[in-house]
Amino acid sequence: MKQSDVYNSDSTPSESLAASKQNGNRAKLFIRLGIGLALWVFLYYWLKPAADFITYDIFKLSASSHLGSSVAFFLYDTPKVILLLVIVIFVVGIIRSFFTPERTRQILAGKRQFFGNVLAGGLGVVTPFCSCSAVPLFIGFVEAGIPLGVTLSFLIAAPMVNEVALILLAGMFGWRIGMIYLVTGLVIAISAGWIIGKLKMERYIEGWVSEIKMAEASPTTSGMTFEDRIHYGLTAVREIVGKVWPFILAGIAVGAAIHGYVPEGMLASFMGKSAWWSVPAAVLIGVPMYSNAAGIIPIVQALMEKGAALGTVLAFMMAVVGLSLPETMILRRVLKWQLIGVFIGVVAIGIIIIGYLFNAIL
Predict the structure, then answer these.
(1) Residue 23 placed within a domain
(2) What's the pTM value of the predicted model, to 2 decimals?
(3) pLDDT for residue 30
(4) How many Cβ atoms are within 10 Å of 86's Cβ, its own excluded?
(5) Residue 131: inside a domain, yes or no?
(6) pLDDT, tens digit, for every residue of 117-155?
(7) Which among 297, 296, 281, 292 is positioned nearest to 327, based on CA atoms?
(8) Most buried residue, 10, 161, 254, 326, by most Cβ within 10 Å?
């Protein structure tokens, strides 16, 4: 072989070395992910035996006592919820790495009513935005020419139809309940946005919103490598779990108290199918509360175990995560009270209808 043939090869020695190093790093990353997944499965499998051992053998609590039942519930559900959160947020974080606010605006811009509402509802499920993002997102959507109704479908779906809540519900009650939550939440987001869009309430957007010029678009994520997206998912796990764990502990503590101390069937008289007023009451109670999906799911589990009807509990959960008072106050910065009132009223009516519907058919 001539020396010139060596130098005319497709890659230089330094490029080959860099490619080999990259492949080695990728292999190590896959090995670490495999070990992490195996550890996750091992821990999840032994949660129940470990919780029972600590409660009844180490703490010497009676399985028939209120305190024993509450402690076992807390020790089992806390790591269970956190483990589910870790795996869900990691996977969804990778999916979210393909989306930025700018890309979301580009997808929704120019879409007509109803089709735009459907698309906005679907994007709200998979994009990383919560009520704290409501103002900058709303401004960006308005500036991009996205219709008001389409924008509100997105802002309703993003906190209400939460992928964390979906997986937790499916893990605790089965995929049937999880899909009911997903479908009903999307129906409310799409319908409410479509109705508000038809009411032509653009005049109730604060005037300064239309005058604002958005800053330069966020950088896209199209150039991210597979390894970058994995690290994006791991970062999402650290950030989100780090923020929500106090709500998880508080929610599970409340759920444990209900599980251990509330008599069987007592809640059926307040939140059962026979109490016609239970669904609107659940919505009224849920609106001023502040929690996220991770914190409210353990309470949902405890309520259903004690005889509360599914439709009533779903209405309560959706009111807490979709019509929270903090989100309302945030939106007030960009919407006038007339539009805020219509927004709350339409979404609340949708939640109440869903609650009654599922109490009737399930």
Answers:
(1) no
(2) 0.62
(3) 86
(4) 17
(5) yes
(6) 888 888 777 765 555 555 566 766 776 678 888 888 888
(7) 292
(8) 161
First-to-last C-alpha distance (Å) of the chain: 78
Query: Tell me: the pLDDT tens digits for 218-236?
Result: 444 556 787 888 888 888 7
Q: Which residues pair with 335 in a beta bridge?
A: 205
Please give the share of the chain, as a percent, with pLDDT higher than 70: 73
Predicted confidence band of residue 51 (pLDDT cuts 50, 70, 90): very high
Cα–Cα distance, 123 to 203 (Å, whole number):
26
Residue 80 in domain: no
Q: Give me the helices (H) in 97-198, please.
A: 101-108, 115-126, 134-143, 148-160, 163-173, 175-198
Query: Is residue 327 within 8 Å of 291, Cβ to Cβ?
Result: no
Nearest CA-CA partner of 336 in 215, 222, 203, 224: 203
**Which structural domain range is residue 130 located in?**
101-215+245-361
> Residue 344 domain-assigned?
yes
Q: Which amino acid is it at 144?
A: A
